[in-house]
Amino acid sequence: MKDLTVSSSEQITSDLLPQPFGRRGMIWTGTLILICIIGAFAYYRQLRYGLVVTHMRDYVSWGIYISNFVFFVAISLVGSLITAIFRLANVKWSTPLTRIAEIIAVSAIVFASLIIIVDMGRPERFLNLFLHGRVQSPIVWDVIVISTYFCISLLLLYFPLLPDLKILLRFKEKTGNALNKLYRFQGSFWTGTKEQFRISDKSINILCIVIIPVAFCIHTVTSWLFATTYRPGWDSTNFGAYFISGAFLVGAGAVVVAMYVFRRAYKLEKYITELHFEKMGRIVVLLALVYVYFNVNEYLVPAFKMKKPEEAHLVELFAGEYAPMFWFAILVGMVLPIFILLFKKGRKPLPVFIAGIMVVVGAWFKRYLIVTPTLLHPFLPMQNVPDSYRHYFPSWEEWAIAIGSLAGALLVITFFARIYPIIPIHETITEQHEKAEIE
Amino acid sequence: MKKLRLNKYLFLAFTFLLLQQLQVAAQSDSTPAKKIIKLHYFNVNNSMQYLLLESTLKRGKVFSPQQRKAYALYLDSSTAGNLIAQLLTDENGKAKAFVPIALKAAWDATPQHTFILKEGDDEVISDYSISKAKISLDTANTDGARSIVVSVMKMDKGQWQPAKDVEMKIGVERQGSILSAGDAATYTTDSSGTVSAEYKKDKLPGDGSGNIILVAKAEDNDVFGNLVIEKKVAWGVVTKVNTTFFDQRTLWSTRFRTPYWLLLMAYSIVIGVWGAIIYLVVQLVKIKKLSKEPNALP
Predict the structure, then answer these.
(1) Cα–Cα dist A33/A252, whole Å
(2) How close does chain A come to B276, measured CA to CA in Å?
(3) Is B219 helix (H, G, I), strand (E, B) or coil?
(4) If 0-12 CB within 10 Å is exposed, 13-18 middle and 19+ buried, where does residue A48 land?
(5) The predicted structure's pLDDT at residue A7
(6) Where are the domains of chain B?
(7) CA within 20 to 30 Å of A147's CA: A184, B12, B92, B217, which one?
(8) Which comes out higher in pLDDT, residue A200 or B5?
(9) Residue A176, strand partner residues
(10) Is B290–A199 a contact, with Cβ atoms under 8 angstroms apart?
(11) Which among A160, A194, A205, A158 is positioned nearest to B290, based on CA atoms?
(12) pLDDT for B154 beyond 50
């Protein structure tokens, strides 16, 4: 932080300007594009031959796609945590992280919407959801709330970007003609007058207030897709809070991973400091503890009663086919990160990054466990069905599409970081000036 | 040593059971199949006469329908002129035939007829005879006691004569069976060809007007075949179907019957949030307009 206090505005601008891809950046982007192409080919096969190319059948009709959807929705919640809650709580240290959080939120919500369309056998009928949708259906609520959250997240990304666009326009020789045209189109009207700042600040505050209930809604409604369906493992009044706590955790985990990667890739050590990892590490511990608490509620209470229909589901999770995945999600996704991050040495950038990876990977498997084992344990016994209906393991097409969507989300973040400053330039300069004045 | 002996006994027992099973299987395969072919004559409400053929194969204790099997059915003699129908059994081994209009003269000529069934050139049934009969059903009410009166008449010497000793079920048509009108399972006609069954099922649910269907049915009678007569009477309890159930505004109704409270909640949230979004877009436009003002510099 001391280095930062002596940095000039020009130095900050120069440090934070978007940089062209290096060799590693090209390999990274190329790999992501390749994975997306494989995913697109798999989706072409699904469109051509129908959902039969997947291994979803009568019982497991929500497989890896819906697990992925829930994962994306969860991760998108981070935009409201870092940007809105911290801003309203006047947490100053979070400034370099806000844009990272917002772009993660936007890319995640875009791919959450896309993956739900992928799950449809007849995607051309998607419009019917709007034309003939019932307000009583939680699926319609989810569609409304996702599109609303997407618009708010986009605005929350755009408003704080306006002053930076003006700065970017000054560096045409560095950014190139094409990008300059894009910046001009998006932000040439920003002159930085007091009135413009006043309106912008007021708008950002409104967005921060609005996004919190909408973010809670998006994840609560997603949880209701399950909780309003009468099945063992989903029949819970705890689901909304359980999903939101999990979403905050995975979102925070994703941010620490992105912080570490951007810090290393763009040499942002002066801006994303060890202090940020220290603070985010503490937040992840808190969120992981809250999520562990909800998990204990979610599994201990039904396991204590062990009602007959719940028994097969719970035994399968605790000691059956899904036990390795279940304990992996609990231990690696929650317990181990807590142990790593509880210690001061564990809150250094690399351990925080590793803990973040564990949280995100554990969270993905946790979503899979929420969706699939429940569907394999309906209240009525499965009788006279082919053996393939009793088990579920995704087909290669499902894996390719799911991994392709994850790669697509990362690609959006990668391109965003290539085009726009991943740390807000104007806000960093303003904070620097404020600090200098105080000192 | 003890263990070895136990294993030996287990092996012998297993081999014995296996051989026995193989023997049973071989026996059941070698058992000759027996064809069971039956004809049934039906007279429903004195208006429709038809014949039902049932063709089954019996192997051991297993009965299986003979599907797609062709037969020819004749009236009285197996000549081309007396052909009732060429029959082909369905997947249940059954086929149905109506007496054609072309055989009306032959049908009316005698009170008794014989049906002949041929499979290829072989006569598989040649002695299935029925006497023409008609059945009627009436109701009576004596001092508030309801009864069902059924009469069976047979054609004899060109005239309808009472048919006595015809056993039949008399009751109310229910789902898949006949609920007996009184305490007896069956009733038999007397010398006047008539039988009366007291109606004791007063509280049976009927349709919207309280209608129930009274039925009298003589099943596979040796002389007359199957005789069935039905009559609709308003003896049941009026059943009111609650049609308003589906008109309610509930969470499970159609989109046009959304509960008002849900509409209010959903629309207020959507309008509130989207109102804020629209307001913010307007603010964006405002920021854009500010840049065009003459003193737009910071």
Answers:
(1) 26
(2) 8
(3) strand
(4) exposed
(5) 52
(6) 34-131, 133-233, 255-290
(7) A184
(8) A200
(9) none
(10) yes
(11) A194
(12) yes
Which one of B263, B280, B290 has the shortest CB-CB distance to A195?
B290
Residue A439 lies in a domain: no
Residue B83: phi, psi to the nearest 5?
Answer: -70, 125
Q: How far is CA A213 from CA A77, A254, B49, B282, in A?
A: 11, 21, 75, 22
Domain that holds residue A227: 2-381+393-429
* Alpha-carbon gap: A190 to the closest alpha carbon of chain B (Å): 6
Residue A245 lies in a domain: yes
Instruction: Provide the CATH topology of domain B133-233.
Output: Immunoglobulin-like (2.60.40)
**Which is higher by pLDDT, B33 or B38?**
B38
Distance between A35 CA and the closest CA of chain B, angstroms: 35
| Residue A284: closest CA among A371, A370, A362, A368 | A362
What is the spatial distance between Cα B291 and Cα A195, in angstroms, rounded to a whole number? 10
Which residues neighbour A74 within 8 Å (Cβ) at sequence distance 6 or greater? A219, A243, A246, A247, A250, A251, A363, A367
The CATH number of whichever domain residue A352 belongs to comes to: 1.20.1630.10
Alpha-carbon distance of B230 to B48, in angstroms, equals 13
Tokens 């034309």: give the residue.
A131
Q: State the CB neighbour count (10 A cutoff) for residue B289.
A: 11
**Residue B119 carries which DSSP code?**
E
pTM of the complete model? 0.72
Tokens describing residue A369: 């466990």
Its ipTM equals 0.88
What is the CATH number assigned to the segment(s) B34-131?
A: 2.60.40
Phi, psi torsion values for B178, nearest 5 degrees: -110, 125
- Is B252 in contact with A189 (Cβ distance < 8 A)? no
- In whole angstroms, give the CA distance from residue A370 to residue A222: 12
